[in-house]
Automatic annotation (TrEMBL):
Record has Hydrolase as a keyword: yes
Positions in coiled-coil regions: none
Domain Helicase C-terminal: start-end pairs: 514-664
Organism: Vibrio cholerae
Residues covered by region (Disordered): 78-97
GO MF annotations in UniProt: ATP binding; helicase activity; hydrolase activity; metal ion binding; nuclease activity; nucleic acid binding
Record-given protein name: CRISPR-associated helicase Cas3
Domain HD Cas3-type: 17-239
Keywords for this protein: Antiviral defense, ATP-binding, Helicase, Hydrolase, Metal-binding, Nuclease, Nucleotide-binding
Single GO biological process annotation from the record: defense response to virus
Protein family (similarity comment): In the N-terminal section; belongs to the CRISPR-associated nuclease Cas3-HD family. In the central section; belongs to the CRISPR-associated helicase Cas3 family.
Length: 824
């Protein structure tokens, strides 16, 4: 491409390190092609091309180019797209934030398309509403591409209208139109035709007309359409910026997975599995059922299998063959705990064998990507572009709903994909309607399949009648992949529940005595508690009480995942060798972790948690019946843990209505979720500030409905700023668990001297298993003690001082090399 014309001398990205710069023209052309390719998956390729072509149109302004010249003269080498703090000199920094380069393209598109909307309105008013929605969505994507999607309406302002009406002295739109390359303007003009708006409107209307929607669903879907286009733009922009920094990345883009080869690998693996015990035959039957159903159409399916029934291999078998059948792009596993991610990733890599696992499997589970992103983290953040991705429910929810552009980049990857939700019952209650509406949109309009896997299936498709209009999961016909669930649960019944709760509760000495009794009887015992405080307290109490030869282990999220994996590997080794083993853990172990204890003691919680805990007892059927004791500690503070508190209340109702032998059966679990959901149905819209809900802010926005003539009324940014997948914002820190972790910290710090995007990304990926998430109050205490340090000046990735990490408990609030007063 000729880049020598005067207009093409306008700079989009400087590269001081290598002495060359990317022009605005080249950048816009490249992002247009990429965004169009990404948006084609959702049926709106031309719309993607248009927003890609015009997103940085404002960089044609003389003011922005003066800023570029200052950056180059100062040789700072910092990315001009960074809207956060940087190490630029005071001269260039003084211009940052004063030059609006995102409004010009938004205004150009809106002003070009709005007359066509008015013409369409004269012909077909109903169709024209979709034309206005598309005009608004395209303009909003460009106006938002550095901030995250802006509000259309806020409590006090018509934000979108004001952005479109922003004065030309501030947006430089006329000057940019004068300076821009004629070829680029001609290309843009050819796109913004009456035919473009007419056909776009018809496509969107036809899409929505396929299904019967409530008003809330309809408006929420318009927001989802906007979010998906925005995601395509953000990812295309980041890809081109990263490829400019690292041209060698380009050949790796858009490789279509060889699903046929992967299917052959799993069939070969399945054929080699031994079937020695009755449970092995049951697992094989479940797997075969999934294989047979893989040829079904895309949609929403459930895989309801008792714990230990082989869901990992069965769901992978379904997913690989389903992806092959429908030529899908990827399989994304969404999992509640990082410990299960590592376990499942290992199992998948074992299946794939000699396939290069780094090309196929991506584990993305840490919070190392900071909310306040630097230009480095923008280039390096994961966009889920591998065939098989394993991530957490927190990452998934934040990609859909959190603020900024970090998560938005990944959202389009959920189209033309299979989403496997492992342990779906862990979905936060306040996210139920947001989740249901999003999954319904993806499966209805984006050629996506969702598979809900668990032994304790929540009733997301059977919500109380009064709240169905807010969003209920629309399962496919014959959605359950496992026939005759009741019979399957009878076959896999390997434990009995012993409800030993009592009015006065169990004190520490009584619990310790019960542990000793069970260790004497069956050699191994797992105790699952509700809080980290109890995990530490009980671990310390048992150290001086248990029998000689018994090794005690502690597990909590205060330990990095590599630390937890090391402990779990040793636990499994001891269990398989029949050695006396006691493990005291928070609930991170109860969902999907493959361990087999002789006995489990579970602090009372929701029935779904109790059932999941039971799956860690007699998992492989070596005993005739394993025992799971449910007890209530006398001194346990769960007042602030609303999910646990509500779960206990619903469980107590089930204890009163069902016998112990029926507690793990589907009928009891269904009744439990009916109680649990009914009691908490007001929380499911995600209550927000000022008597609002996030569901309302992202759909009809009723409070502000009369403040705008526009179709999109969503308060995207207001909702995003209030959304948190967990109750408090978490900080993430890399901990010096071992030599490898320390080397990663050293190498990350060294990059401050000579930055390399590929190395930075690779090191952050490697650091995931050595990171710990920390609540704000703990973060503040560590900061006060100078226990955490940034890897570079103005960088938002931190590491922990070695003295504050314990090999017994993990993160500590005090200098420690032994077991001291620790926070975990």
């Amino acid at each position: 491409m000729d880049d020598s014309s005067p207009s093409r001398a306008y700079i989009a990205h400087p590269d001081i390190l290598h002495g060359h710069h990317q022009s605005v023209y080249v950048h816009l052309q490249a992002v247009s092609e990429l965004a169009g390719r990404l948006a084609a998956k959702i049926g709106f390729a031309e719309q993607g091309q248009l927003i890609g072509l015009m997103h940085d149109f404002g960089k044609y302004s003389n003011a922005f180019q003066e800023y570029m010249r200052l950056i180059i003269a100062e040789q700072t080498g910092y990315n001009p797209d960074n809207d956060e703090g940087s190490s630029e000199s005071s001269t260039s920094r003084s211009l940052k934030g004063k030059i609006d380069h995102s409004s010009a393209g938004a205004q150009w598109i809106f002003n070009s398309l709005f007359p066509h909307f008015l013409k369409l309105k004269q012909q077909d008013q109903a169709l024209a509403l979709y034309g206005l929605a598309i005009t608004q969505a395209l303009s909003m994507c460009i106006a938002s591409h550095h901030s995250g999607l802006i509000d259309s309406l806020s409590e006090n302002e018509n934000v979108f209208a004001n952005r479109i009406k922003k004065h030309d002295e501030l947006t430089h739109q006329k000057e940019c139109t004068k300076n821009a390359d004629p070829d680029l303007l001609s290309q843009a003009q050819s796109l913004v035709s009456f035919q473009f708006i007419s056909e776009s409107s018809q496509n969107l209307k036809s899409m929505f007309d396929r299904v019967v929607l409530s008003a809330i669903e309809h408006d929420y879907y318009l927001g989802m359409f906007t979010k998906m286009l925005f995601s395509c733009l953000i990812d295309a922009d980041r890809i081109d910026s990263a490829d400019f920094e690292q041209p060698s990345n380009k050949p790796e883009r858009f490789k279509q997975p060889d699903w046929a080869f992967a299917c052959d690998k799993i069939e070969s693996f399945i054929s080699r599995l031994e079937q020695v015990n009755p449970i092995d035959h049951i697992r094989a039957e479940i797997s075969d059922n999934c294989f047979n159903r893989a040829q079904d159409e895309t949609g929403i399916y459930s895989l309801t299998v008792p714990t230990g029934g082989g869901k990992t291999y069965a769901s992978l078998r379904f997913s690989l063959h389903h992806a092959k059948k429908h030529n899908l792009d990827r399989i994304i596993y969404i999992i509640p705990f990082t410990s299960i991610i590592e376990q499942n990733a290992t199992a998948i890599r074992e299946v794939l064998g000699e396939i290069d696992s780094d090309d196929w499997v991506l584990e993305h589970h840490s919070n190392l990507e900071p909310e306040q992103q630097t230009w480095r983290s923008k280039l390096a953040c994961e966009n889920w572009d591998k065939p098989i991705v394993l991530t957490t429910m927190v990452q998934f929810l934040e990609s859909m709903f959190a603020s900024g552009t970090r998560g938005s980049r990944r959202l389009h990857q959920l189209s033309n994909a299979i989403l496997v939700f492992d342990e779906i019952q862990t979905l936060p209650i306040r996210c139920v309607h947001l989740f249901n509406n999003t999954i319904n949109y993806l499966t209805r309009f984006c050629n996506t399949t969702a598979l809900m896997c668990t032994a304790t299936q929540p009733l997301l498709n059977q919500l109380p009648e009064k709240i169905k209009q807010f969003g209920e999961l629309q399962l496919s016909l014959e959605n359950e992949l496992t026939p005759n669930i009741e019979k399957l649960y009878q076959k896999l019944e390997r434990v009995s529940i012993k409800n030993v709760t009592k009015k006065e509760g169990w004190n520490e000495a009584e619990i310790t005595e019960l542990v000793q009794q069970q260790l004497s009887a069956v050699q191994s015992c797992l105790v699952i508690v509700n809080t980290k405080v109890w995990a530490k307290k009980l671990f310390q109490a048992c150290q001086s009480q248990v029998l000689d030869g018994t090794k005690i282990f502690h597990l909590s999220t205060g330990m990095c995942s590599a630390h937890r994996k090391q402990i779990l590997d040793e636990v499994r080794s001891r269990l398989s060798s029949g050695l006396a083993t006691l493990c005291i853990s928070t609930q991170l172990i109860e969902a999907g972790v493959d361990v087999d204890f002789g006995c489990v003691i579970r602090f009372v919680a929701g029935l779904d948690s109790i059932a999941q805990a039971a799956g860690r007892c007699n998992r492989n059927g070596k005993q005739q019946k394993g025992h799971v004791f449910v007890l209530n500690p006398a001194e346990e503070s769960v007042g602030m843990l609303q999910d646990i508190k509500a779960g206990i209340a619903a469980s107590n109702r089930i204890f009163a209505e069902f016998s112990e032998e029926d507690l793990l059966k589907p009928k009891a679990m269904s009744q439990y979720f009916q109680y649990y959901f009914y009691d908490r149905h007001k929380e499911m819209t995600y209550p927000a500030k000022q008597d609002q809900s996030i569901l309302n802010l992202l759909s009809s926005n009723q409070r502000n409905i009369n403040k705008t003539p526009f179709v999109l009324r969503q308060s995207f940014m207001t909702a995003a700023k209030q959304f948190k997948a967990i109750d408090a914002p978490m900080h993430s820190v890399i901990v010096p668990f071992n030599d490898e972790a320390q080397n990663i910290i050293t190498e990350l710090c060294a990059l401050d001297m000579r930055f390399d995007a590929k190395s930075y990304s690779s090191l952050l990926k490697a650091a995931q298993k050595y990171s710990v998430n920390i609540f704000p109050n703990v973060w503040q205490k560590l900061t006060d003690q100078q226990a955490v340090y940034p890897i570079a000046q103005d960088e938002a990735v931190f590491y922990l001082s070695e003295e504050f990490y314990s090999q017994d408990f993990g993160l500590s609030l005090e200098v420690t090399n032994t077991q001291q007063d620790l926070i975990f």
